[in-house]
Specification:
Blueprint: H1 6-24, H2 28-35, H3 39-50, H4 52-73, E1 89-93, H5 98-103, H6 108-117, E2 123-127, H7 128-137
Antiparallel strand pairs: 1-2
Helix pairs in contact: 4-6
The protein binds zinc ion (ZN) (2 copies).
One zinc ion (ZN) binds next to loops.
Amino acid sequence: MPYKSLEDRRQNARKQNARARAEYGCSWSTLWRRKHPGRDAEYKRRDFQKHKAERQETNKLRLRVLRLLVISFYGGECECCGEREVRFLSFDHKDNSGAEHRRNKMTYWSYHKWLLAERRSNMRLLCYNCNCSRGFFGKCPHED
Ligand SMILES: [Zn+2]
Ligand SMILES: [Zn+2]
């Protein structure tokens, strides 16, 4: 049905809504949802898919920010050699409790939240070189 104006259209919608309420005791949108079970969920799902890439991008950003926060919280540099490049830095379990941590199945996110909750005395920042050297040789060549 063509409408003469926007106001006309609005008025018509109001009338239809009033009729629906009088007849079925609910609005048109509720009626529509009842008439098409599952369609609402379908639309939501489509929306969810549509914004997937966007959401992933946001999540990635959130992770990066959290990691930067945690790294600066722990001094922002390798405790052994002073490396400051964040991409080289990692967290070292001073008491070798890393295996226990992995058993707890912490996610990347919850792990960093845990690190940020308080300054963990058994954790320290090391660059990958110094961290791995400790794993391989028991100590870092820097200490020689
Ligand atoms: Zn280092
Ligand atoms: Zn070192």
